[in-house]
Amino acid sequence: MLSLWENILKVSPDIPLQSVLRSSSQQAEQINRVGNYFYLAAGFILLIVAAFTAFVLYKFGEKKNNGDKKTLSSKWEIAMIGIPSFLVAFFLYLNIKTINTVEPAVNGAAPEAIITAHQWWWEARYPSSNVVTANEIHLPVGKKILLKLLASDVIHDWWIPQFGNKMDMVPAQENYLWLDIKQPGDYYGICSEFCGAQHAHMRIKVIAQTQEDYNNWLKQHQQAATTTTFNSGAQLFMTKTCGNCHRINGTAANGSVGPDLTHLGSRETLLAGLLENNIQNLESWIKHPQQIKPGANMPDFHLDDTTTKAISDYLFSLK
Amino acid sequence: MKAILLDSIERDLPVAHRDRTLLRWLSTVDHKEIGKLYLMAALLFFVVGGVEALLMRTQLAVANNHLLGPDAYNQIFTMHGVTMIFFVLMPALLGLTVYIVPLMIGANEMAFPRLNAFSFWISFSGGLLLYFSFAAGGAPNAGWFNYAPLNQENYSSSPGINYYAMGLLLGGIGSVTTAINIIVTILKMRVKGMSLKRLPLFVWMALVNGFLIIAAMPSLNAALSMLLLDRLMEAHFFNTTAGGSALLWQHLFWLFGHPEVYILILPAFGIYSEVFQVFSQKKIYGYVFVAASTVAIGLLSFGVWAHHMFAAGLGNTVNSFFGASSMLIGIPTGIKIFNWIGTMYGGRIRLTTSMLFAIAFLIEFTIGGLSGIEFSIVPLDWQLTDSYFVVAHLHYVLLGGSLFGLFSALFYWFPKITGRMLNETLGKWFFWLFTVGFNLTFLLQHFLGLMGMPRRVYTYQDIPYYTILNLLSTAGAYLMGIAVIILIYNIFKTIKAAPMENKDPWNAFTLEWYAGSPPNEKNFIDVPVVTSRRPFWDLKNPENRDYD
To answer: How confident is the model at residue B101 (pLDDT cuts 50, 70, 90)?
Structure first.
């Protein structure tokens, strides 16, 4: 058990720092503009309170002040209502203005992708091309796209810090999020509403691409699964009932409970960002799912080593 | 000054088994003994909740830690939150209210002494029932706000959440009955001359708080009952696979949950209002503003609950409304901070441990209040809600606000309750260790939130800066742990020491110090007719009396 964990520690994929203060989308930029005003005002208020307190403590200590009974004029009380009221009015204006620019009404616009959160992984469907994938979500840059956010079991929450705002995914409810990514690149996020045992291991990776690369990716992923080497893994995948929960396009496997595995070999990580995608990790996962991700819905089938190896080889060959 | 003789206590109260310690504590209806029971129960749960916090921080000290698995961690963080809110802060603040309010208004008892005992025991049983869940197959594991549908049988099959619902229902009943008792006591049992505009501010806050509890608790109690029906009898209020609503739970919970935040802070505001006056040796600056802004906060607190749901997809119109109402609360709260500093202005400040906690509160609570206003700005809430920034914010408000208030009260009223002074040197060690530890732990969590760390994760991957910030945060938690050990040592050492001679060690202003320290079983034999807001001051300084 311990050695298994040490193994995981080594292969845990590196994730660069993701700061909300870096605006990688137009939405994040709008939000951070409000943030800048706010942090400025808040810092100023904190400074005033601290300075006034320090001054009073310095000036009116028991030893320093003998009987000098000063009282603040009650005019200050009026100022203390006036100044905060002004600030409140200012931020109220910014607030309402920004809400409506960041998340304007959807008005029946077609979503670029439909993302469904599951315990504990992400499913992405692309309505324009019938592509289905999981956890690593490809999106185009430089245009305003709409994401439709759903949940299949409990409440989850979509959050890529550098894209600004998060949005809950509520079962039996449709939520939407506008997104306009500035630059191609990899962006990382994580489920932000507590969703049960493996809430900590529900990472999102967004691979933002130029429109051209994105179209190519979609085209490639529309293809059915092709496996370069013939092996028994494909058959075992069916006979061991893997296909009841997982889908592999072009085969009889068309379950929808677990992640789509049609192009599993082309992904960089497994288990919503927990492990690097390689044959060894795939084998460990199939053999010990409850040790690697305790509580996950993947059962332990007690498969022998040869079967595990064959299935892993087959899945990894699905590029 | 003329004193009036109180009638011998309004009616004879049962005082059972005066000679049997355990039976006496079990059967007492004396508001002072019940107050002490509340405070001791709160201390017990505080230690338990604190150990849970240290377990969490130990698990999070380094990346990819596997000291506690997800199963244990999720139970522990849930129990930490539920314990600290419902079985530490609530009973400690209510217990203090039950002890102090009758003394402050010159009464010999609460209005309903037997109900008072009932309230304590039913709340305490709620806490015990909640902890029994560990023995019954697993503690609740869906967080203190226990969102639907994660709280349903099919996603949390251990009985923990049933115990959560039953434990909090009992606690909720106890809180409502106490609140009724407090309101009636304040409105009906004040000594002659103590009009509402002469009420000590601690009593004012207790009064407003009583109304808040009565209005807020039913929403929680209804939600908990519906949850029990869902889990035990397959009703479908919150079961989304059978047509129930996930957001209904959130509305009901936060309609209680946000006023709850003020239920936890208003009594602390009352404590600070007394402490600042006594240790500045000066009366409050802007009495009317402090009292009136409390009423404003109380009213506004019922119109802000959906700011906990800005990311739930309620739509821009709803979000704008709740953003505006939440931001408005900043104004009456800011007024209070200003009034307390204004009270110190021109005073002769004595830096006792009690006062140090009150002064530290001004800064910590301003930080927590400002990040609170940040969450009322919807786009910033969208960015930071459910991240470690929220964990930092809520601890700045609840620790820097309510808990610092309780510590301040402990040092201020300990001589009143026990007749013995807590050691000030140990007290100052406790203050500095706790305050440094507190800021180390929670200030850094703001940055973790800004770096995208979500709350309630049992572990995290090795992302740049995560390990160092979390490790320091854990170190701060241990500092607070050491500080609390010093406090407990101080308490036990003091209880064994000889009683003090002077019943009024702080040269205080209000009537509870006119009674003995500790007070007799019957609080007062006679009480002065109150002619100002500082009756005990008037009595001690007849040539320099207040007229207000």
So the answer is: very high
- Of residues A118, A104, A139, A148, the one with CA closest to residue A209: A139
User: Chain A contacts of B324, Cβ < 8 Å?
Assistant: 92, 95
Of B148, B320, B457, the CB nearest to A199: B457
Please give the C-alpha separations between residue B87 and each of B80, B123, B206, B215, B402, in angstroms, as whole numbers. Answer: 10, 8, 18, 20, 14
Which is higher by pLDDT, A235 or B3?
A235
- The answer to whether the peptide bond before residue B25 is cis (omega within 30 degrees of 0) is no
Q: How many CB atoms lie within 10 A of CB A212?
A: 9
In tens, the pLDDT along B126-165 reads 999 999 999 999 999 999 999 999 999 999 999 999 999 9
Mutation for testing the A interface, residue in B383, B446, B448 having most A CBs under 10 Å = B383
Strand-pairing partners, residue B5, are: B526
Per domain, the residue ranges of chain B are 20-544
Residues of A in contact with B359 (CB under 8 A): 53, 57
- Exposure on the CB side of residue B208, measured as CA atoms within 13 A: 30
For the full predicted model, state whether its pTM sits above 0.90: yes
For residue B485 the two structure tokens come to 């050990």
**CB–CB of A71 and B335 under 8 A?**
no
Res B193: pLDDT:
92
Please give the pLDDT value at position A81: 87
Query: Measured between CB atoms, which of B383, B450, B459 is closest to A31?
Result: B383
Choose, out of B389, B448, B457, the residue to mutate when testing the contact with A (most A CBs < 10 Å).
Answer: B457
Nearest residue to B120 via CA among B99, B138, B105, B103 = B99
Which residues have CB under 8 Å from B546's CB, separation 6+? B283, B531, B532, B533, B534, B537, B538
Q: Please indicate whether, in this complex, the C-beta atoms of B155 and A196 are within 8 angstroms of each other.
A: yes
The ipTM value here is 0.93
Interchain pair B379, A165: CB under 8 A: yes
Per-residue pLDDT tens digits for B318-342: 999 999 999 999 999 999 999 999 9
Average pLDDT over residues B293-303: 94
Average pLDDT over chain B, rounded to an integer? 94
Residue B195 vs residues A68, A189, B407, B541: alpha-carbon distances, Å: 31, 58, 30, 21
DSSP state of B312: G
B3 band by pLDDT with thresholds 50, 70 and 90: low
Asked if B282's CB is within 8 angstroms of A9's CB, the reply is: no
Q: Do A62 and B460 lie within an 8 Å CB cutoff?
A: no
Element (H, E) at B291: helix B287-300
Whole-angstrom Cα distance, residue B364 to residue B117?
35
The helix, strand and coil proportions of chain A, stated in percent and rounded to the nearest 5, come to 40, 20, 40
CB B524 within 8 A of CB B106: yes
The token duo for B148 is: 């639907």
What is the distance between the alpha carbons of residues A245 and A152, in angstroms, rounded to a whole number? 14
Task: State the Cα–Cα distance between residues B197 and B192, nearest whole angstrom.
Answer: 13
Residue A122, H or E segment: strand A121-126
Q: Which fold has domain B20-544?
A: Cytochrome C Oxidase; Chain A (1.20.210)
- The ranges of chain A with pLDDT < 50 are 1-3, 5-7, 9-11
